[in-house]
Amino acid sequence: MITEQRCPIPENETARLAAVHSHHILDTEPEIEFDALTRVVAHAFDVPIAVIAMMDTDRLWFKSKVGLDVPQLDRKVAFCAHAIVAPKSALVIPDLQDDIRFADNPLVTNAPHLRFYAGVPLVDTTGHALGTIAIIDVQPRVLNHAEQASLLDCATLVMTALQGRLRASVLEQMAMTDYLTALPNRAQFDNALSGAMSRAMRSGVPFSVLCLDLNGFKNVNDRFGHAAGDEVLCEVARRLSGQLRQGDTLARLGGDEFAIVTQEGDHGAVAVLAQRLVASVGQPIMLSSGDTIHVGISVGIAPYRAGITSTLFLLDQADKALYDTKHQNAKLV
């Protein structure tokens, strides 16, 4: 039995886990650069097993591996759990059988009967150990200083790839996000609409498109300035988001125009949703200046129907419904 004492937990574990999850790498598909580096490491050190691994809450997950046929290990039996406790150095165990921490580890006492381990923590720019790059053998061996330095260099290469991957992810997210409200932008909305259309055509999963436009927003900018207008847009985005279900997509298309893809396809239910949206936005908005303002919102609805194959057609239908709603509201004023 592996005791809790034999599975050390870093003092900064909460922050470390947050750092791991911020990279969005757990349970991702294989990637060429990581697989190639793992193969090079296994060949360079002449070991049967090499891994690039991330330490999650209760498991060691392998981003890349050579010589193993499992996607993850229980953290309690993972040698890497010990390596991440000292993020500035390599953990080298010449013979696992001779180390009291690992002698009764099932990976040592049973197949694959491991005997040697050397792991270097993968440390991000905040100083948190995300996981390790490790080499493992079924025979005892030593790792001299030059070889340890080479393994440390390999860890640097892995982190360079991870940081590049993270930067690319951030840039992609920025390209899909409205700078002001942090809502999805038009590009991300189009992707969500295309996905909903594909599911509907394939499996008949219902959905609806809503186009929304603020009433009286120009008066806000004219009277209180554009900074106040930005405050209103952010508050409206917050209120609209609060009325939606998980899986719905709310986007800001530009200016004071918003749009929603909702998984609700029933006309009555969508009408009720529209009423909630109108009521929520219609509540007074308190600006940081202390001024209280009122804006309204108009909603146009276009439910998906069998036979519709164009997202542009459906969005155009919602936009026409919005125009009709605004025209009707203008008559009532």
From TrEMBL:
SUPFAM superfamilies given in the database record: GAF domain-like (SSF55781), Nucleotide cyclase (SSF55073)
Domain GGDEF: 205-333
InterPro entries listed in its UniProt record: GAF, GAF-like_dom_sf, GGDEF_dom, Nucleotide_cyclase, Rev_trsase/Diguanyl_cyclase
The protein's name in its UniProt record: Sensor domain-containing diguanylate cyclase
Organism field: Actimicrobium antarcticum
